[in-house]
Write a structure and sequence with these properties.
It is built from 10 helices and 35 strands. The chain is an alpha+beta fold and 660 residues long. The chain has 3 domains: 262 residues, Immunoglobulin-like; 168 residues, C8orf32 fold; 206 residues, Jelly Rolls. Strands 2, 3, 4, 5, 6, 7, 8, 9, 11 and 13 form a 10-stranded mixed β-sheet that branches. It has an 8-stranded mixed β-sheet with strand order 25-26-24-23-29-33-32-31. Strands 1, 10, 12, 14 and 15 form a 5-stranded mixed β-sheet that branches. A hairpin with a 6-residue loop joins strand 2 and strand 3. It is flat.
Length: 660
């Protein structure tokens, strides 16, 4: 029976805005060896003057070869890069990863390359010699073919091409359109046989290239050959900035998942299962579900907890605390156990799956409705819910439902209270591992990053300021600070805290509730600022007392991916300053109240005088955890305003001041 002469395609596309259209094959990138004079003459890249290099063109073509007696997957690549700065020399170092498993392998053929320079107005080119290509064995399955392009200098254009022949015909290579430097042109073509059905997964925020060809199919399709083509131009550099998950979550790329293989004789075979099938297989695995049923080694401990605590919430918290104290995390992320959980329990050390599967089993033994949850951590990347692949997950947490309320628990971190997830787990949704259940749980923070500072200060006639502050940290702020203090040691941290304030001398740092993770953490300390009285009896003082935001965390003028804070932020500062007798407030910063669109956040700031007391209130609230690309300018401007306003000073004057 002949296979059907068509292929079904499913696309998960996230694009910046609007629609995109197909591009004809005639729009392909540069031809090998044909260098344009303007490419060599280029001194800097106008669209990004900070660029150390520019990918002028990057073209790849994947196709299948049926003529060698066995089917092989062929991947051909041609790349051209302009080197603009010495820091971009690394773009002349090429590494080609190759995989092998038993007798099946990948090998690279036809490596060729040239480096082009402009010397005294004339084009010169240096050939990549065969002896400059070498192979490095990484491990049993992976090796790398490497070479460095010759005679590279600032202004060079390097060009190379190669062909990979692969026995792994089901592993169609993914393609990245975006790198750490700008890309002028990137193109990927795939010729698919009629026997394979693929799901296409597009990731990123840069749209595909448009032409005047108009609407219709999103891909360039030659119905006779089954050739699909994806093309982008003017792709900006992907630069790492604060508040992201992992850069790969934002990179413009396309991935392929083989759905069905149509065999002319044997018929069709589905290559991916449904979620319920994947979950059932996981529950029957010796390295996962089977471990949940082996509970004899902790029955006495759980029985003691049930005898001591009456409510399900108390029992849940006590079991969570027991596992945290009993087993230390070895730092390894995994969704599988490495052996029996009893051995982990006895040794007191285990990976994330072992610890949290043990936690789940104990919660079940206590009669609570508990099940594991599959998680992809922030650095591991986001998941596609429509794609049932266990490789997309790398972590386990426990879920408990009490009185229709959901709790997510992680016992790998001794500083995490019950019901609070670590930063790394705040990443989209997690899959509940429960038979005949199709449940995804939002991995959202149950607390904010909250700081509240209260200070009482007295100002002398010489301008000297003395006082005491109490800083309260809650939620994720308390989690971060507790970790910093305990890692450094209380005494050493206090010493560093006392000397880390510049002109603001701190002393007598005291911690409160450092070891009570369910409570706010408090720091109390004294502050002194030497007098800075100026001529004409004026005293200048920044009332933020060293707690002002020194620089905007958002450096990029344009950001091509969202801002992900992970947790809401609430930072409040309330200080009172008692003025010396006969002095009054002469100048003060203008009050500010700035709000982000859609109630995303706000900044409040005001200085007031009541009698001989000057009060300062500064409050930063970030209510949303994720801000889209279109919201970035507002967020950047908000932080510009915060930095500027918190840097302003008040002026205190002897005698009657201005009417403020």
């Amino acid at each position: 029976m002949k296979a059907k002469a068509f292929v079904k395609f499913y696309c998960c596309l996230i694009i910046l805005a609007g629609s995109y259209f197909s591009v004809s094959a005639q729009d392909a990138g540069a031809k090998f060896g044909k260098i344009e004079e303007q490419e060599l003459a280029l001194k800097s890249f106008e669209a990004d003057t900070s660029a150390e290099a520019v990918v002028l063109s990057d073209h790849a073509y994947s196709h299948f070869n049926f003529t060698t007696g066995k089917t092989q997957l062929i991947f051909e690549r041609h790349t051209r890069v302009k080197i603009l700065k010495k820091s971009g020399y690394d773009w002349a170092n090429v590494s080609i990863p190759l995989y092998q498993n038993n007798s099946s392998k990948e090998k690279v053929n036809s490596i060729k390359g040239f480096t082009y320079n402009l010397v005294d107005g004339k084009l010169t080119k240096d050939k990549l010699e065969t002896k400059a290509v070498f192979e490095e064995q990484i491990n049993e399955h992976w090796s790398s073919k490497k070479f460095t392009m010759p005679n590279v200098k600032e202004g060079s254009v390097v060009e190379y091409s190669y062909i990979i022949v692969s026995d792994f015909i089901y592993n169609l290579r993914d393609w990245e359109f975006q790198t750490s430097v700008p890309t002028v042109w990137s193109e990927y073509e795939v010729q698919m046989p009629q026997y394979f059905d693929y799901k296409f997964l597009y990731n990123g925020y840069h749209p595909f290239h448009k032409t005047g060809k108009g609407g219709g199919d999103s891909f360039d399709l030659d119905t006779n050959r089954g050739v699909y083509s994806w093309k982008m131009k003017d792709v900006p550099a992907l630069k790492e900035e604060r508040y992201i998950t992992t850069l790969d979550d934002y990179r413009a790329k396309i991935e392929f998942e083989l759905q069905v293989v149509h065999h002319p004789v044997e018929g069709s075979k589905t290559m991916t299962g449904e979620w319920n099938q994947v979950i059932d297989e996981l529950l029957s695995s010796e390295r996962f579900g089977t471990q949940l049923n082996r509970k004899g080694y902790f029955k006495n401990e759980v029985a003691a907890i049930l005898a001591k605590y009456n409510t399900p919430e108390q029992q849940m918290e006590a079991i969570h605390e027991l596992v945290k104290k009993k087993v230390k995390w070895d730092g390894m992320h995994s969704i599988y156990t490495g052996g029996p959980l009893r051995k982990v329990y006895d040794n007191g050390k285990g990976n994330a799956a072992e610890i949290n599967l043990m936690l789940t089993a104990m919660l079940q033994e206590a009669g609570l409705e508990a099940a594991p949850v599959l998680v992809s951590t922030r650095r591991h990347g986001k998941i596609y819910k429509a794609t049932p692949l266990l490789t997309k997950f790398n972590y386990i947490v426990a879920h408990v439902k009490i009185d229709n309320k959901d709790y997510l628990l992680d016992a790998t971190d001794p500083l995490l209270p019950a019901g609070m997830l670590s930063y790394q787990c705040l990443n989209g949704e997690g899959r509940l591992v429960k038979s005949k259940s199709d449940v995804w749980l939002p991995l959202k923070p149950k607390a904010s990053y909250t700081e509240f500072r209260i200070g009482e200060f007295a100002i002398s006639e010489t301008g000297e300021v003395k006082g005491k502050t109490t800083d309260s940290y809650q939620g994720y702020s308390a989690l971060d600070l507790r970790r910093s203090i305990l890692e450094a040691g209380e005494q050493k941290y206090a010493e560093e805290h006392n000397k880390s304030a510049g002109d603001y001398k701190r002393s007598g740092t005291v911690f409160k509730d450092l070891h009570s993770v369910e409570k706010p953490l408090e720091l109390s300390y004294e502050v002194q600022v030497e007098g800075n009285k100026q001529q004409n009896n004026l005293i200048y003082l920044n009332p933020m007392m060293g707690q002002n935001l020194k620089e905007n965390p958002f450096k990029l003028k344009y950001r091509y991916y969202p801002v992900d804070f992970a947790v809401p932020i609430d930072e409040t500062l309330s200080y009172r300053f008692t003025l010396p007798a006969g002095y009054t407030l002469d100048e003060k910063p203008a009050p500010v109240s700035i709000a982000l669109p859609n109630k995303g956040g706000q900044f409040l700031y005001r200085v007031e005088q009541q009698g001989n007391v000057v009060t300062l209130m500064s409050k930063i609230s970030i209510n949303k955890t994720v801000f889209g690309i279109e919201e970035y300018p507002y967020l950047k401007e908000l932080y510009d305003q915060i930095v500027a306003k918190q840097a302003e000073s008040i002026v205190i004057k002897k005698g009657e001041g201005k009417t403020l």
